[in-house]
Amino acid sequence: MEQLLDAAIIGGGPAGLNAALVLGRARKNVIVIDEGLPRNRVTHESHGFLTRDGIKPDEFRRIAVEQIRAYPSVRFAADIAVDIAGADGDFKISTKEGRTYRAKKLLLAVGKKDRLPAIEGLTDVYGKSAFVCPYCDGWELRDRELAVIVKGEHILHFAKTILGWSDRIILFTNGPHELTDAQREELRVRNIPLHDGPIRRIVSEDGMVNRVELEDGFSVPCTGIFFAPTLVAGSDLPQALGCELTPTGSVATTNALGKSSVPGVFVAGDIATEMNQLIQAAAMGAMAGAGINAELLAEAWEARGQMGQG
Ligand SMILES: Cc1cc2nc3c(=O)[nH]c(=O)nc-3n(C[C@H](O)[C@H](O)[C@H](O)COP(=O)(O)OP(=O)(O)OC[C@H]3O[C@@H](n4cnc5c(N)ncnc54)[C@H](O)[C@@H]3O)c2cc1C
């Protein structure tokens, strides 16, 4: 029978790794199971994390793992958690490689995945000159001629946001949209061009975009792109476990320490927030690590009391 660990952390991005650091320092036996596909892996540089501004995602992870390895009660498994059975106090995690781990508590730090719009040429520029988050990469694209590709109800909000980094934006809806006449007028009076025809392709060289071509033959020069991807959960595990979701599809938490609606299951990082940033994920991981430790300490206290009475 496998050892009953204190916690299993599914996902080794900043959320899972910061939780592992907190739990390792709290002398807890922990396994970090990580598939190794963090959301920002396409980028050359990460921004906005104090003391780490401009760091390569791989280097960020290398430093994190090296520091956590100082705490021998934390182990790492390069694997995918595919199934979780059991309940608070004894979860059983099965992996793709055929291993099983048992843990009293669970942290789901599985992140989110970006589904890119099906536009020819977009993957060539993604992470190089096309990005999803202006807080992450807006500074690098500041003052450029920016194509902003967005659909749905967030068109105006996205346009307003990107204007914070460049005055020169061109909106593309890549086909039919739901803008009202009044909203189109809002764009017109602000001199923001709107192209609502389908995009044929994005033309680039070495990852640097130089124009967006529309199906009708129109070609629009630009030197950067922001687009709105569709976000999906990094794994089905939170839903399979019955974790409640928020209306926007994140996993709901019942306290600031990342406790989910399922006893013994904590969540941290992108999977549980709309503010998708490395520092936010790391902070949520630290909080969840403390939350898990608090539950383990409370349970140990109870058990000690019962032993004393026996
Ligand atoms: C293009 C791009 C650029 C970005 N740039 C920045 C930036 O400059 N600055 C910034 O602050 N933020 C940036 N972000 C956002 C940032 O990447 C995320 O906020 C952050 O990675 C979230 O951390 P996380 O730990 O929640 O998830 P992730 O970092 O995505 O890590 C989740 C991990 O869980 C693993 N996983 C999922 N399911 C399983 C499973 N079943 N079993 C095992 N492992 C599993 C995944 O493989 C992955 O390794 C960027 C995002 C994108 C898309």
Automatic annotation (TrEMBL):
Entry keyword set: Flavoprotein, Oxidoreductase
Cofactor section: FAD
A Pfam family this chain is assigned to: Pyr_redox_2
Origin superkingdom: Bacteria
All copies of domain FAD/NAD(P)-binding, residue ranges: 6-285
Matching InterPro entries: FAD/NAD-bd_sf, FAD/NAD-binding_dom, Ferredoxin-NADP_redctase_2
Coiled-coil intervals: none
Complex formation: Homodimer.
Database matches in PANTHER family: THIOREDOXIN REDUCTASE 1-RELATED-RELATED (PTHR48105)
Protein name per its UniProtKB record: NAD(P)/FAD-dependent oxidoreductase
Species classification: Bacteria, Bacillati, Bacillota, Bacilli, Bacillales
